[in-house]
């Protein structure tokens, strides 16, 4: 059986949720040699008393037995798990046949989308690393847009140029933007190594079967509501960045098992995974690989930000400029392309099948486009003494920065949408496609 079709025994999510049953035929991932990136859970069959047992019990006017509704499914996705999101899929056609349902609407409908946009303006969960990742990259993208204006605007409207616009304005904003991207990449990598491996359902789902005069009435009253207090993801803990624990007393360990901070309530924050974990799990985890490549790309790209500062770049020869300014932009840009592509593939059922309905897919796609823009700028840079080439190089930074801004803004929205609800789509049954 390929690696993407089964969880490793110690890595299967939601093992401690007896109310959920893993549909093993739905465990899958886009690349057969890497870990699964998606799975589907259905409510476990509820145990109900037999007729013989019921006859031995005194008849009560009304008895309620609580089980989970059969028309809801939990969608486990590796990206959602990293981001602290709890995806629920609802078959509304079946649910509408039962009276008294209290089910949330699909989060892709107008009202939840507007509420999500409002949350972006009113909610600041600074303790949530996923939120910090999104906001950091949004800030970095905004700085790069300003940088592109400093470099591109004088070529479009020479009359608007002021002293030091390209050298000082462009150099300083480029360094700040590269530094912010580096910080965001570090947070992204920490998020990846601290993903909740046990999984977290995050929803309270109930169906009440009412027994009146000794006979069961099949009127179903279903309810689905988030239970944030019981969430095991990092965002539920407001005292630590990546959910290291609610108590302040901690112990630290640094050994071959990696470096981690462990709280007295059992939660831990891992700074460095062990060599064994890297080899057996993380290097087979698509999201971790994308985050790692993003980190290396941002680190290399930061060299270009440093050497682009005034006082450095204007004192270098053309050959030195090409080697330590333009080449790091090319290498870093290629890394951004690969990282964005891997983040996109992670959300897909198959490596070639786009997942337009998933926010993470659009985030990866826009970052992929942004990486192309930054790479083009670096590739055209050595020939920038030609006016037309310089124009295209600075323009590539401009539209590449806007692509990163769009992707980061969507990621900001995603980081605040912890309980996405999807409407079950009617498709042709395929036991391996995850539908």
TrEMBL record:
The chain crosses the membrane at residues 129-152, 172-190, 286-304, 324-343, 355-381, 393-413. It comes from the Eukaryota. Residues 1-70 are annotated as: Disordered. Residues 50-63 have a biased composition (Basic and acidic residues). Keywords: Membrane, Transmembrane, Transmembrane helix. Residues 16-28 have a biased composition (Polar residues). This is Integral membrane protein. It comes from Penicillium angulare.
């Amino acid at each position: 059986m390929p690696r993407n079709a089964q969880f490793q025994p110690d890595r299967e999510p939601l093992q401690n949720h007896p109310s959920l049953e893993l549909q093993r035929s739905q465990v899958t991932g886009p690349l057969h040699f890497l870990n699964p990136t998606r799975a589907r859970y259905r409510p476990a069959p509820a145990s109900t008393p037999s007729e013989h047992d019921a006859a031995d019990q005194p008849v009560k006017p009304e008895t309620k037995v609580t089980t989970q509704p059969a028309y809801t499914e939990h969608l486990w996705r590796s990206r959602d798990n990293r981001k602290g999101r709890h995806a629920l899929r609802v078959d509304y056609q079946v649910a509408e046949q039962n009276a008294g349902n209290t089910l949330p609407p699909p989060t892709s409908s107008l009202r939840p989308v507007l509420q999500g946009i409002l949350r972006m303006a009113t909610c600041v969960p600074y303790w949530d690393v996923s939120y910090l990742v999104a906001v950091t990259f949004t800030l970095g993208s905004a700085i790069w847009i300003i940088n592109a204006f400093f470099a591109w605007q004088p070529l479009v409207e020479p009359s608007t140029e002021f002293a030091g616009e390209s050298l000082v304005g462009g150099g300083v904003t480029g360094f700040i933007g590269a530094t912010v991207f580096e910080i965001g990449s570090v947070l992204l990598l920490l998020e990846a190594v601290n993903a909740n491996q046990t999984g977290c359902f995050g929803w309270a789902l109930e169906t009440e079967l009412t027994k009146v005069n000794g006979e069961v009435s099949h009127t179903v009253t279903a309810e689905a509501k988030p239970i944030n207090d019981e969430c095991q993801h990092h965002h539920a803990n407001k005292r630590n960045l990546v959910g290291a624990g609610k108590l302040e007393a901690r112990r630290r360990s640094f050994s071959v098992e990696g470096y981690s901070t462990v709280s007295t309530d059992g939660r831990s924050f891992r700074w460095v995974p062990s060599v064994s974990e890297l080899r057996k799990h993380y290097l087979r985890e698509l999201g971790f690989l994308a985050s790692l490549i993003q980190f290396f790309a941002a680190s290399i790209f930061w060299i270009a930000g440093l050497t682009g500062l005034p006082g450095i770049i204007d004192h270098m020869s053309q050959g030195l400029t090409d080697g330590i300014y333009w080449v790091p932009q090319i290498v870093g840009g290629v890394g951004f392309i690969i990282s964005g592509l891997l983040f996109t593939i992670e959300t897909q059922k198959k490596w070639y099948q786009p997942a337009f309905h998933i926010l993470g897919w659009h985030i990866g796609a826009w970052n992929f486009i942004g990486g192309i823009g930054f790479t083009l700028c670096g590739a055209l840079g050595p020939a920038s003494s030609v006016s037309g080439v310089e124009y295209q190089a600075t323009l590539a930074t401009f539209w590449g920065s806007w692509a990163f801004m769009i992707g980061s803004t969507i990621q900001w929205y995603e980081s605040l949408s912890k309980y996405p609800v999807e409407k079950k789509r009617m498709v042709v049954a395929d036991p391996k496609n995850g539908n």
